[in-house]
Amino acid sequence: MVRALDRYVFVEFWKIFVTTALGFPILVNIIDLTDNLDKYLAQQLSWGRIALSYLYWLPDSMFMVLPAAVLFATVFAIGSLTRHSEITAAKASGISFYRFIAPIFVGAVIATILGLILGELAPITNKKRLEILDANRVNVGNDRYNFAYAADGGRVYKVGALHLLAPSIEGMVIERKGNGPGYPSYVVTASMAQYRSSKGWVLQKGAMHVIPDTLHNMTFSFDSLIDRHFTEPPKQLTLAQKAPADMGFRELGRFITSMERSGAEVNELRVERMLKIAIPVTCIVILLFGAPLATSTQRGGAAYGIGLSLATTVIFLMLIQLTKGIGSKGIIPADLAAWLPSIIFGVVGAFLFARVRT
Fold this sequence. Notes:
Blueprint: H1 2-42, H2 47-83, H3 86-92, H4 97-100, H5 102-133, E1 143-150, E2 155-163, E3 168-176, E4 185-196, E5 200-213, E6 216-226, H6 249-261, H7 267-294, H8 301-328, H9 334-354
Antiparallel strand pairs: 1-2, 2-3, 3-4, 4-5, 5-6
C-alpha cells in the first residue's frame, strides 16, 4: 500500500512540476517571439531557425523557474490531497505527514540535479542561439582598450589596446589554468601582437611562464611566438563579451581568477557563480517552506494556492536581486549573498515544517 501511495503522490507532484517548469518558459518564449518577430523576419531567418533558437533558449529560461515549479507543484499537490482528505486518511492508517510527502522530497532532489545540469547546459545552448540570431554586436569604433575576453578551453585574453585597422594589439596577456604537470598552467605576455590572415596572431617581444605546480615557474623569453589556439580574428575580439549566465561554473571561476589578477572588481561575478549552485539547491529548501503552507490551501482553494505560490516566488526573486546588489558592493561576502535567500527561506521553512501536525 505504501509503495502504491508513494507512486501516486510522486505522480501528482511530477505532473504539476513538469507543466510549470515547461509552461512558464514557453510562455516567456511566446511573449519574446511576439515582440521580436518583425526583427527576425527582417533578418530573413526561416521559421525553422527561429523555432530552433527558442528551443536552445529553454535550458536558460527553465533554470531560474525550477524553484518556482517545485513550489507550485508542492502547494497544488499537497493542497489537493488535503482538500480530498487523503492526507487525513493516510494519518489514520499510521502514515505520518513527513512520510507521506517523502516522494515529493525525492522529486525536489531530482529537480535540484536537473537544475545543476541545466546550469552547465545553458551556456552551450545560449551560444548556439546567439549564432542563429546573430545577436552579438560589434562595438562602435576601430579601437578597444583594457578589456578581458573569455575564450574557449578556459583561456582568458587580457588586452591593453586592440586596433582593428592595423590590425594589432598592444599589451597582450594570455592565461590558461591547468591541473598539474601533465596539463600545466601558463601565462604568455607580449608587448605587441600582429594579425596575419595566414598565420593568425603573431606575438612579439614577450615571455611565457609555464607553471606546472605551486613550487615551480619556468620562464621562456621570445622575440616572436605563434599560439595556435589564439585564432580569433580581430573583429571577434570586439564582439559582446560573454555574460556570466553564458559561462559554466568552472569557466566562470577561471574568468574570475584571471580578472582578480588584473585587479578588477569581481564580487558580482562571484555572486553569479555561486547562484549556479544556490538556485538549484533552493528546490529542496522551497519544499520545506511550501509543504506546511500547502496544508492550509483547503480554506481558499486553487485561488489561494496560486496567490501563495506567486507571492512566494516574487519575494524569492526580489531577495535574489537585493542580495546580489549587496554582495556586488562588498557589503557582505559574495558567496553568502548568493546563499542568503535560500538560508532565509530555509530557516522559515524549517520552523513551519516543525510545526506541522504529523
